């Protein structure tokens, strides 16, 4: 166990914020779908994976085709890749909802869950076919500057100094911007109030003249787009594993745990939970053991479920008898 | 004293009768296991024996998961975790036990040796430890419903995997073990590199015996009062509670029983010739494979789950190297036949429905087995590197399987034709429809096979995709699975008009 | 097996006890209440049910009747007051413990074990009176086999009460609606209760069926020596068979008394018809012409 230093602490805090932002983007997708359809979209983490791989493909194939070498990409090229990946995943989210979940809307929750697992397996294993993304890991070309900014300190031992990667800043800023946009959408627009109405009660919302099918599809599209953004941000920071790799499952699960910890179905809860989980994970890795980082996540999950099953900001629900 | 209690003694059989009846199936299983080992195994050769053992292990895992997911309606998707816990515990017993006792971890020759006692001890301990872990995992089940529980169990499976990858290197000599002490020894199971060297004690005898016992346990559970209480929790927790059923206790019990059986299956797997335990192979994909068998076979159906486990295992084997199109096509026909007729299960509309399900299912299994055997010839050479070659090359029984299949299909067609004249023309129409569906599937599979051959695509890569599609289609078309909650042997009872006041089975 | 005697109460004794009003107090509900969020679903509800009684609980939609049942059976935990069953406090116990103590119920929206057979449903009702060990089940020990056979035999006897024994092998969800309601009553009876709570047993039945149900309820009560508490919207049925009636509105008891007292009570009429002093007619005629749910029931009284 390393001794406590301010540098270590601050450095870990920076990583926590960056990771937390990523988790938050993914957790929002889980929580929105749960809020509306009351089921866990098991395939959501796979949409994140697709987002990451789409970003990779767009950056490696599409940008050069447009005459932009990826290694000399400008800021707007990165933005372009992000938007393309979001659009592609939004389309996939739409198709998944219409083809697989819509026919199951009145089915028992267990059946929907099994369908979702099926979709998840389908996406994972299709993704690693040779003519899709392949079964090899890949590294995204550097779309953003890689030289870290040093703040304070001189790099000498004992001095307070933090290195901040531009990537982490981009991740945090993009994620925060998207979350603010989502917040505005859900709480300040007509569509947002329709979403909240559907989440409250589908039949009642339908009686009020809300186009429920549209709202549900829109929710999936929105969740998938956010997932794609998370995938893009992940891709610019880390190497990509093949789509069926266990590391992706852990990424999705961690984000899901964040949504549960915050109170599933609650948008602000998901964000809060995400930063909390990231902090627990990063600081646990720093002070205890980095090998057990996944174990901390589940320890938190189980603690929350046993002590406050509705999550930090969730509401208690009661089954009608 | 309550009313029910006062009647029990009057109905209770005597101890000798009860015990004799209770032990009879065990004797049958033991005889069957002996026959399988002494007659079947040498006849079909080591490769097929290996496939049969793997099928047996898949059945054990599927029916054990069925206790939680099928009977009790809780949703556990981390079953490979229990399997891993049991497998590693059993492996530690036999590997380090052999090192200490015999000085070498190699398996001893013969069916009943000190080594096989060690193996049985490993089964017992693996089952117990897995049961204890099942208890701990079952506790959240009291608080969580449905999806939440699924996530917790998935997380459990992953955590087991992560923890196993953190373990130390395997010790190789008895001296090292004595030096290391108990705690270090039991955690020296190879980490991410895997736990190689576990003696290969498993064979068709043990697989059949242990698998048979597990199936018997499931059957007696379902038919007894405990299993009935399990099913009531699945059907309606609130009503079950109102009827005085302690659902918390039931859920934990289900988890413990299921985990124990999965643990034992894990031990059998760990000692299966050709297997080297590796945490990364006991991951969530493995859990999903088990889950798929349960969902396809029917949540709550022991026979359906076992049947699906057979199909899934043989399918996995077959996809690696597709056999001839005829076998594929016939299997497809048989499967769709089984699927289509089982629609009428419990509805008592078509007389031949349950029979059709039985024939369809068995047919599909036979055909797929034949397919596996046929292509197995080619793989035998590679397997012989691991498993000793048979003394004499056994002929492939594929043609026999084909003949049986043809005979059954003809019988079915005749049956269908005979029904045409009666009011049940629908059955005949259905037979024709099925033949059409079969033809389409044959064409599609053949096209894919040709295409795959032309492009040099490995069909094995499509295994999980196929499972995923099967899962999604099953949920859309027949969410309760092939047999639903029913068993193949219920067919007669469901189809026969209910007799009035049949009374207790005396 | 067919010779198994049904559990016999002592009808004459019970009848006398009720008649002389000195009956042993079986279920004593003392000022229980529960609040959901800001909604006071049930407040200060008291019920005193002697052995062998048949009482009714009525009230407009959303008055808190089913919530009351949920409180009695432990589905919801009481926030105030106490529930005593035959001298034993049962409030705060888990639902299965309450069932064990002798309180059984049916549900407003039928909650049978649909995939299981009719027979298995009844046998599950008996589960609480049995002893179940895993070893007994797995090894088929004499105690387990004997218990299964006894359950089997008794379940058939019970099914005969409602002529359901012919359909014992069918899945419960395949029964017609009326039979499902009857099966729920049998399943509740199988738990050997002291007090039976029936939540709208006649809902969805035609007048003929209601009539025979009313007879069955009275017969069951006598035969098993039970106390019955009944929620019902059919005023004819309630007025016909209930000895005393409690009226709930907005979660509070607004009246309590014999059927004739209730019919004459202006508060009850007001609760049902919603116009103070306007109604001169009772909610239903004593003759028992199935009046159904009285018209004019306010629909916006919150949910139970």
Question: Any overview of this molecule?
Answer:
The complex is a heterotrimer of chains A (321), B (506) and C (304). Chain A is mainly α. Chain A has helices spanning 6-37, 44-65, 75-101, 109-127, 166-188, 190-200, 202-207, 212-237, 246-262, 267-287, 293-307; strands at residues 149-151, 162-164. Chain A folds into two domains: 28-244, no CATH class; 249-321. Chain B has 506 residues and is an all-alpha fold. In chain B, helix 2 packs across helix 7 (204-223). The termini of chain C are far apart. Chain C is globular, with a radius of gyration of 20 Å. Chain C has helices spanning 11-20, 65-72, 95-101, 118-126, 134-139, 142-161, 177-190, 207-224, 235-241, 259-264, 266-273, and strands at 25-36, 39-50, 54-58, 80-85, 88-89, 103-105, 195-199, 227-231, 244-249, 252-257. Chain C contains eleven helices and ten strands. In chain C, 37% of the residues lie in helices and 20% in strands. Chains in contact: A-B, A-C, B-C. Chains B and C meet through helix 1, helix 2, helix 7, helix 8 and helix 9 of B and helix 3, helix 4, helix 5 and helix 6 of C.
């Amino acid at each position: 166990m390393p001794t406590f230093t301010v540098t270590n602490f601050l450095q870990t805090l920076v990583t926590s914020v960056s990771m937390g932002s990523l988790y938050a983007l993914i957790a929002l997708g889980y929580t929105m779908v749960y809020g509306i359809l009351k089921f866990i979209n098991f395939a959501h983490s796979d949409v994140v994976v697709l987002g990451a791989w789409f970003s990779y493909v767009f950056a490696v194939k599409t940008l050069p085709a447009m005459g932009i070498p990826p290694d000399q990409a400008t800021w707007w090229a990165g933005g372009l890749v992000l938007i393309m990946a979001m659009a592609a995943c939004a389309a996939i989210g739409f198709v998944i909802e219409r083809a697989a979940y819509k026919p199951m809307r009145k089915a028992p929750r267990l059946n929907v869950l099994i369908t979702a697992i099926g979709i998840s397996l389908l996406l994972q294993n299709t993704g690693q076919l040779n003519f899709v993304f392949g079964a090899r890991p890949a590294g995204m070309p550097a779309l953003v500057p890689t030289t870290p900014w040093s703040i304070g300190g001189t790099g000498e031992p004992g001095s307070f100094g933090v290195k901040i990667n531009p990537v982490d800043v981009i991740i945090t800023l993009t994620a925060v911007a998207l979350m603010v946009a989502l917040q505005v959408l859900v709480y300040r627009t007509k569509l947002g109030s329709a979403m909240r109405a559907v989440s409250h009660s589908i039949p009642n919302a339908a009686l009020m003249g809300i186009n429920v099918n549209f709202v549900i599809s829109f929710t999936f599209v929105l969740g998938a787009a956010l997932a794609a953004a998370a995938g893009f941000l992940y891709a610019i920071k880390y190497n990509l594993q093949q789509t069926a790799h266990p590391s992706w499952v852990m990424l999705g699960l961690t984000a899901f745990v964040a949504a549960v910890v915050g109170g599933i179905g609650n948008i602000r809860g998901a964000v809060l939970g995400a930063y909390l989980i990231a902090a627990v994970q990063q600081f646990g890795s720093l002070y205890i053991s980095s090998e057990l980082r996944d174990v901390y996540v589940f320890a938190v999950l189980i603690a929350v479920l046993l002590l406050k099953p509705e999550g930090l900001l969730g509401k208690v629900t009661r089954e009608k008898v | 004293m309550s009313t029910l209690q006062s009647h029990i003694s009057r109905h209770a059989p005597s101890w000798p009768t009860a015990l004799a009846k209770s032990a009879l199936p065990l004797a049958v299983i033991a005889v069957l296991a002996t026959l399988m080992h002494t007659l079947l195994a040498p006849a079909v050769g080591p490769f097929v024996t290996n496939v049969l053992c793997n099928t047996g292990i898949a059945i054990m895992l599927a029916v054990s998961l069925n206790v939680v997911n099928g009977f009790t309606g809780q949703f556990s998707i981390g079953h490979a975790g229990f399997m891993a816990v049991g497998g590693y515990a059993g492996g530690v017993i036999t590997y380090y036990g052999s090192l200490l006792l015999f000085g070498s971890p190699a398996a001893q020759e013969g069916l009943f040796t000190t080594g096989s006692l060690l193996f049985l001890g490993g089964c017992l301990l693996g089952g117990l430890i897995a049961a204890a872990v099942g208890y701990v995992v079952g506790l959240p089940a009291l608080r969580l419903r449905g999806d939440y529980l699924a996530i917790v169990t998935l997380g459990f499976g992953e955590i087991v995997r992560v923890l196993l990858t953190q373990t130390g290197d395997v010790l190789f000599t008895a001296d090292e073990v004595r030096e290391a002490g108990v705690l270090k020894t039991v955690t020296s199971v190879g980490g991410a590199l895997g736990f190689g060297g576990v003696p290969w004690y498993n064979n068709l005898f043990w697989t059949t015996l242990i698998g048979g016992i597990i199936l018997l346990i499931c059957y007696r559970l379902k038919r007894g009062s405990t299993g009935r209480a399990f099913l009531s929790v699945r059907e309606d927790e609130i009503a079950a509670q109102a009827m005085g059923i302690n659902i918390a206790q039931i859920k934990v019990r289900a988890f413990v029983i299921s985990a124990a059986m999965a643990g034992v299956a894990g031990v059998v797997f760990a000692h299966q010739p050709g297997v080297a335990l590796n945490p990364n192979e006991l991951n969530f994909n493995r859990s999903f494979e088990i889950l798929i068998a349960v969902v396809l076979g029917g949540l709550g159906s022991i026979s359906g789950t076992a049947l699906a486990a057979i199909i899934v295992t043989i399918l996995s084997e077959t996809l690696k190297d597709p056999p001839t199109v005829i076998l594929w096509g016939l299997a497809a026909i048989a499967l769709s036949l089984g699927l289509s007729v089982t629609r009428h299960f419990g509805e008592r509309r078509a007389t031949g429905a349950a029979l059709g399900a039985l024939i369809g299912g068995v047919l599909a299994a036979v055909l797929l087995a034949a397919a596996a055997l046929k292509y197995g010839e080619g793989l035998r050479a590679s397997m012989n590197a691991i498993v000793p070659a048979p003394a004499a090359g056994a002929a492939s029984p594929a043609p026999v399987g084909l003949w049986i299949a043809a005979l059954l299909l003809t019988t079915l067609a005749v049956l269908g034709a005979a029904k045409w004249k009666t009011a049940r023309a629908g059955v005949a129409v259905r037979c024709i429809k099925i033949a059409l569906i079969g033809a389409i599937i044959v064409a599609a599979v053949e096209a894919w096979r040709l295409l795959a051959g032309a492009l040099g695509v490995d069909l094995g890569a499509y295994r999980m995709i196929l499972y995923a599609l099967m899962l999604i289609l099953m949920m859309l078309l027949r969410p309760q699975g092939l047999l639903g909650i029913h068993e193949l042997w219920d067919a007669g009872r469901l189809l026969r008009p209910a007799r009035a006041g049949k009374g207790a089975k005396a | 097996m067919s010779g198994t005697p049904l559990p016999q109460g002592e009808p004459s004794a019970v009848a006398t006890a009720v008649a002389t009003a000195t009956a042993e107090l079986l279920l004593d509900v003392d000022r229980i209440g529960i609040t959901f969020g800001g909604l006071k679903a049930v407040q200060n509800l008291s019920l005193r049910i002697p052995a062998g009684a048949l009482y009714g609980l009525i009230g407009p939609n959303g008055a808190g009747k089913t919530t009351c049942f949920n409180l009695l059976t432990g589905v919801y935990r009481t926030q105030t007051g106490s529930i005593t069953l035959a001298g034993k406090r049962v409030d705060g116990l888990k639902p299965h413990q309450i069932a064990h103590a002798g309180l059984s119920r049916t549900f407003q929206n039928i909650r049978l074990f649909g995939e299981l057979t009719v027979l298995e449903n009844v046998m599950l009702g008996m589960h609480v009176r049995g002893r179940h060990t895993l070893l007994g089940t797995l090894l088929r020990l004499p105690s387990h086999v004997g218990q299964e056979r006894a359950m089997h035999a008794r379940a058939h006897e019970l099914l005969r009460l409602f002529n359901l024994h012919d359909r014992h092998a069918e899945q419960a969800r395949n029964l017609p609606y009326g039979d499902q309601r009857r099966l729920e009553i049998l399943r509740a009876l199988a738990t050997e209760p002291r007090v039976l709570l029936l939540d709208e047993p006649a809902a969805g039945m035609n007048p003929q069926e209601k009539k025979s149900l009313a007879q069955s309820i009275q017969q069951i009560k006598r035969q098993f020596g039970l106390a019955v508490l009944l929620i019902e919207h059919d005023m004819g049925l309630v007025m016909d068979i209930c000895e005393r009636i409690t009226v709930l509105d907005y979660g509070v008891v607004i009246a309590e008394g014999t059927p004739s007292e209730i019919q004459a009570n202006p508060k009850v009429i007001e609760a049902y018809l919603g116009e103070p002093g306007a109604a001169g007619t009772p909610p239903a005629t004593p003759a028992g012409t199935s009046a159904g749910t009285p018209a004019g029931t306010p629909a916006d009284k919150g949910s139970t």
